[in-house]
Structures are given as structure tokens and as C-alpha cells.
Amino acid sequence: LTTIREIYKNREAYLDKEVTVGGWVRSVRDSKTFGFIVLHDGSYFETLQIVYHDEMENFAEISKMNVGAAIIVKGILVATPQAKQPFEIQAAEVTVEGVSAPDYPLQKKRHSMEYLRTISHLRPRTNTFQAVFRVRSLCAYAIHQFFQERDFVYVNTPLITGSDCEGAGEMFQVTTMDLDNIPKTEDGAVDFTQDFFGKKTSLTVSGQLNGETFAQAFRNIYTFGPTFRAENSNTTRHAAEFWMIEPEIAFADLEDDMELAEAMLKYVIRYVMEHAPEEMQFFNSFVDKGLIERLNHVVNSEFGRVTYTEAIELLEKNNDKFDYKVYWGCDLQTEHERYLTEQIFKRPVFVTDYPKEIKAFYMKLNDDNKTVAAMDCLVPGIGEIIGGSQREDDYEKLLGRMKELGLAEEDYGFYLDLRKYGSTHHAGFGLGFERCVMYLTGMGNIRDVIPFPRTVNNCEL
Ligand code: 4AD
Ligand code: MG
């Protein structure tokens, strides 16, 4: 079998020759002596028209196929200069590999995203999800390529962990204990020593802490894997299971971290625009008008920079527009993030140097003793897409911060060791992969950029 992509890309080599393609029927219509099939094979965004004739012994079988049937077609590829499509196949043989029942849910009409979420096993066959998941795949490849070209080592960090990297307590517990008969200690607490790992464990919220150990050996590393958060927030940007890319760089400060983040995002945008032009055109026409122009502008301009303190001053002037009023010390809500990037900067922007109270324990304390060397990258349409920081590299300061926050020292011994044996100044960040795909496609809901979304009250398929 050849593919529709191959035919479109190397049309000269295939014109007037016999080709064989396999795919799924998007539509069939017949008149008495011949008929047309629109075929999609998943290799390319475009479809291919097939013409078939009543000389075929299975003409009737073909004509009564339903949308969604799987077929194999052998025939001659001919140019059709008058038609909308550049060519079609004059079929010599059409083999019906798998019929499709008449109740096939994806009939030729526009379905709502909500409805398509209820059939996540079939929605990859639609134009929208063909485009989304090809872009998602290219985006992953581009990210690996970006880091590999720069000699970063790809590290696989564990999904089951005994520590809470972000300290937000939003973890899914992992246990083999019988929940109806939980072993208890003498004072009535859960006895985790009887659990599989002999201690309390969870699904990871971030690979960062493990990643840092490798950065202190390889200098530049990145992770790319699933992470889990039991956030009870039912928004269009939060999933319980999402993928994160977490580079970690040794001998680097916050400035180096932001340069890396900006270069990475620009690289990925360029890569996807170059390798999925049809898909990007589709998003630009049907999902988010102006997307391509906006992304072109992003790759050709510098990201904005603003400190948290400056951002609060800018936002406070607009407090009348917000549900949550801002003040120095508050955590920025999505409405504030979007206002900054969409109304004030009109491009991606890094917000830096947040108050230590609203950030994680591992961030490096600034000289003011109030803020930490943190950065969030905010983008129009979404808000936060990246969160990162320079890490606290001083043993005593880190230990002090952990004690203040009540972190159990014995769970983080390995992490403290890194500050004991050849500590370097170092930094890193986490890019939310789904948010990145949303940004590149203009899709408005995280549920529609991950194949099988897991969100509050939803774990289908
Ligand atoms: O800002 P976060 O919590 O940062 C960290 O986890 C750090 N350990 C990263 C690091 O420095 N190595 O999360 C990073 C990014 C966010 O900016 C966001 O894009 C994404 O992960 N993210 C989510 N994406 C989807 N659903 C959720 N529930 C998310 N929570 C965070
Ligand atoms: Mg964050």
C-alpha cells in the first residue's frame, strides 16, 4: 500500500501509474454506472477521490457501503486539472475490508466538541482531531529534537514517588492496601510500613527533583513524561494526567533558563508550522482565526519580561476588571495572567521574582529575602504555559526553607546531598505539553488536545 501523503508529496512519480491505497470512507455517492468515494487514510490531511464503475463485480457492494468502512483500492492515478482536487484514482478494484454499521456516529456534519468527547475512540477519525493529534506528535518530536541538537540527555524519571515536588499536596496516592481493611499502627494511624513500598507513595506531580540529580552529573538534561495532579479544578486548562517537559541546566541562572524556554517555544512553533502546513491552515480557518499570523509574530519578536512586583502594579490599576482583586503577595489567577499577556504585552511574557510564600520550596531565595528567582511564561489565550526557577543551591538555606514548610528531611536526603557534594548554581523549568499543543493549535479545551483526557469525574476509556 502507498499512502495519500506519499501520493501528494511525490505526485509526478505516481501520475498515470497503478497505485494501491487503504483507508476509511468519508463519503460514497453513486449514479447508475459509476460512483465516487472520498477516502481518508490518516497519512495526510487531504482526502483522495476514487472513481469506480459498474464493470466491477462488487459494484453494488461498494455503492451500499456506509461512511467509516475500511477499503483497499487499486487503480490508476490520473490528473484532474478542472476539479477541486489535483487528481483522483480510477479504480480497477475496490476491496471492502471492513464494513461500517449504519449507525456510525461520525456522519458528514459538524459535531460539537462535547459530543466528540463522549466517543474518544472514534474522534481521531475527524478532521479536527486528525489535525490536533498530528500536531501533538510533531510537537513532541520537535521538543526532543530541540534538546537533542543541544546535547541534552533525556532522562526517564519515575512515575511512582515518595516526595511531593510542588508541595501542594495534590497527589494521587499509590497503594496496594485493601481500602476496606487498612492496616493501622497502635496509635491508630495508617501503617504504611505494611504497604507495597513500605512507605506512603504517590504518582509524581513533576520529575524535577529526580531530574536535578542527573543535571548534577550530565549538566544539561530533560525529562518528557506523564505527570499527575489531583487538583480539584474543573477548568479548560487543567487535566489530572498531563505530560510535562522539564529541562534542568547546571551552571545556569534564571536568565539562562528564560533564554532556553524562549528558544524552545520558538523552535517548536517554527517546526510545526513547517511540517504541518495543512493542519495549521485548518486551525487558522476553523478554530482560531489569526492563529498563523500571531505565531509568526511570536517567532519574530522577543518575549516580554516583567517582575512580579511590576506586574502587580500594572494589574492593580485594572482591579475593577477582575473577579479577584490583585495585591502584592497574591497568587496570579488566570484572568490576571491573560490580562498581562493579552492586553498589556500582547505577546508571550515572563513574569519573574515571585514572593517566596506562593512558590515551591526549592526556588532560590533572592537577596531581598522576600522573593525567589522564579519565572512563569504566560501566553495569550491560555495564561501560564511554563513554570520554572533557579534552584536553591545553598545547603543551609534549603534545609531552613524545608523546615519552615514542615517537609520531612528524611524524604529529601538525596536532594540535600546534591547541595553537599559539588553543588552548582542551576535552573530549570516545566512546560505543560498539552498547554503547548493548545497554544499551537488554538484549541480552547485541554480535553481536546490529549487523546484520552482524565479530569475531575472523568476517566473514560
Ligand atoms: O508550574 P508547575 O507546577 O511547575 C513544576 O511542576 C516545576 N517542577 C517545573 C520545573 O521547574 N521543572 O508546572 C509546570 C507546567 C505549568 O506551567 C503548566 O503548563 C503545566 O505544567 N501544568 C498543567 N497542565 C495541565 N494540567 C494541569 N493540572 C497542570 N498543572 C501544571
Ligand atoms: Mg506553575
From TrEMBL:
Keywords in alphabetical order: Aminoacyl-tRNA synthetase, ATP-binding, Cytoplasm, Ligase, Nucleotide-binding, Protein biosynthesis
Which locations, inside or outside the cell, does it occupy? Cytoplasm
- Residue ranges occupied by any Aminoacyl-transfer RNA synthetases class-II family profile domain in the UniProt entry: 142-451
Q: Which Gene3D superfamilies does this one have?
A: Bira Bifunctional Protein, Domain 2, Nucleic acid-binding proteins
| GO BP annotations, alphabetical order | asparaginyl-tRNA aminoacylation
The reaction(s) this protein catalyses? tRNA(Asn) + L-asparagine + ATP = L-asparaginyl-tRNA(Asn) + AMP + diphosphate + H(+)
Has the keyword Zinc-finger been applied to this entry?
A: no
Q: Which Pfam families match?
A: tRNA-synt_2, tRNA_anti-codon
Q: Indicate whether Cell wall biogenesis/degradation appears among the record's keywords.
A: no
Q: What is its main location?
A: cytoplasm
Stored CDD domains: AsxRS_core (cd00776), EcAsnRS_like_N (cd04318)
Give GO MF terms, alphabetically: asparagine-tRNA ligase activity; ATP binding; catalytic activity, acting on a protein; nucleic acid binding; transferase activity
Q: Which InterPro entries match?
A: Aa-tRNA-synt_II, aa-tRNA-synth_II, aa-tRNA-synth_II/BPL/LPL, Asn-tRNA-ligase, Asp/Asn-tRNA-synth_IIb, NA-bd_OB-fold, NA-bd_OB_tRNA
Tell me, how does this one assemble? Homodimer.
Q: Which family does it belong to?
A: Belongs to the class-II aminoacyl-tRNA synthetase family.
Protein name, UniProt field: Asparagine--tRNA ligase
Biological source species = Fusicatenibacter saccharivorans
Its lineage opens with: Bacteria, Bacillati, Bacillota, Clostridia, Lachnospirales
Q: Which gene encodes it?
A: asnS
